[in-house]
Each structure stands twice: as structure tokens, then as C-alpha cells.
Amino acid sequence: MKIAIGSDHAGLNLKRAIHKALEEAGHEVRDFGTDDTAAVDYPDYVVRVAQAVVSQEAELGIFACGSGLGPAIAANKVPGIRAVTVHDVYSARSSRRDNNANLLTMGERVIGIGSALEVVKTWIAEPYSGADRHQRRLDKIAALEEVNRPSECGTRNAERGMGDAG
Ligand code: RB5
Fold this sequence. Notes:
By secondary structure, this protein is of the alpha/beta class. It is built from 7 helices and 5 strands; from the N terminus they run βαβαβαβαβααα.
């Protein structure tokens, strides 16, 4: 499987461990940085991973930082991304099976390397179920991206008598 990975400075060690484990498992890995411990801003790096996923250069993306939290918030601004912060095997499995998550974020300050690699292995191996009820919900999430585009919001707010659509 083609997998895009990245990290900020706080997730560098975890990313390196994930990179090694993925390659040993036979995956094709593209690393979008960062490559050293100098402090960087995670949105600058996670967006590269997210864009690789939505452009289908990679099937899935994984990003490591200190907590896993900020990069998921940032990545979910990219239309088509369903990013989740996961540090346990149950959530890893259900986020793929039920939510068709396509970008996993993890925090090096939250989880040990051994447990993190189990989460990654589980997340990658679990297929999306495609069950009707889950697809219906994912379709509604995708629709939120459309109705909440700035131009659409202006029109809708004007219809509700809120704000200026002009
Ligand atoms: C960096 O110090 C830290 O804020 C970042 O790695 C991450 O935890 C943000 O969500």
C-alpha cells in the first residue's frame, strides 16, 4: 500500500519508527518531513500528507506530533480528508471500518512506540466496511463540506436573516 507520512519536531522519533515498520511490512512510504528536531508548525507539514491522500498519490496518511491533536484539526480542513487521532486498537479498527478514516494522527508524548506500532498495524489492515448506514453518514459529512463553503454560508445566513450575503 502507498502511505504518506509526516511529523513535526515533537513526533519525529515516532514517525521514524512508523516509517521503518511500514517499510519492513512491505508498504511504499513517502515521507513529507519534517526531517530534524528544529521546531516547525504542524499545519505546514500535515497539509502535505493530506494533499497526497486526496490526490490519491497515497491511499492513507499518518502524521505524528506531540499530542496528535492539532494536525487532525488542520487536516480535516482539507476537503476529502477524514482525519482521526487514535491511540488505541479499538478506535483504530472502528475508525477505518465505520468511518473510513484516511489520515491517522498520533502523539509521541501520549503513547509508547510499541503500542503506537500496534495501532498503526491495526489501522492499516482494517478495511472500510462500506455498510449502508456508515456510507450514509459519510455522505452527510461530505455534504457538510459543500454547505459550509464561505459563499454558501453567506447565502444561507442571508436566508436566515443573519449577516451579509454580499
Ligand atoms: C508541539 O509542541 C505540539 O504542540 C504539537 O506537536 C502537537 O502536540 C499539536 O497538536
